[in-house]
Structures are given as C-alpha cells and as structure tokens.
Design brief:
Elements: E1 10-12, H1 13-20, H2 24-33, E2 38-41, E3 44-48, H3 49-58, E4 61-63, E5 66-68
C-alpha cells in the first residue's frame, strides 16, 4: 500500500499558520477582506485550505531578491 499526502479541506488557524508560513493576524485580516474563507464549528475556527492557496497563487509574495509565488 502506498502512502499519499491528502490535503485536508479545512485546517485550524494554528495549522494554517504553519502550513502557509503566515501569521494568525494575516489569516484573520485576509478573511476580514474577503480574500479567504473560514468556517466556525462549535468553538473552533477553521480555514479553507483551497481559498488560502488560491489567494497566495494570485498574490505573489515579494521577498528579498525577487518575487516568490509562495
């Protein structure tokens, strides 16, 4: 049996900060601007992975030495 990496549809905010190397503040700011989608389930706030990936693809990150598509 081979192992495959399956990306979850939603992750917690702390998981998203690690997964995308962005801050908690940035995640909430992007959500407030309507750039990414989030969902509440009970007391947990979940971040839709695909919406963050799409935002990062369409908004390149400027880094020292050039532009990186994140």
């Amino acid at each position: 049996m081979s192992s495959t990496n399956i990306t979850p549809r939603y992750v917690t905010v702390p998981q998203a900060t690690k997964m995308f190397s962005i801050s908690k503040f940035t995640i909430y700011t992007l959500h407030k601007r309507g750039s990414i989608r989030m969902a509440k389930t009970g007391r947990r706030t979940l971040v839709e992975v695909a919406s963050v990936e799409e935002h990062l693809r369409s908004n390149p990150v400027v880094r020292q030495g050039g532009i990186e598509a994140h």
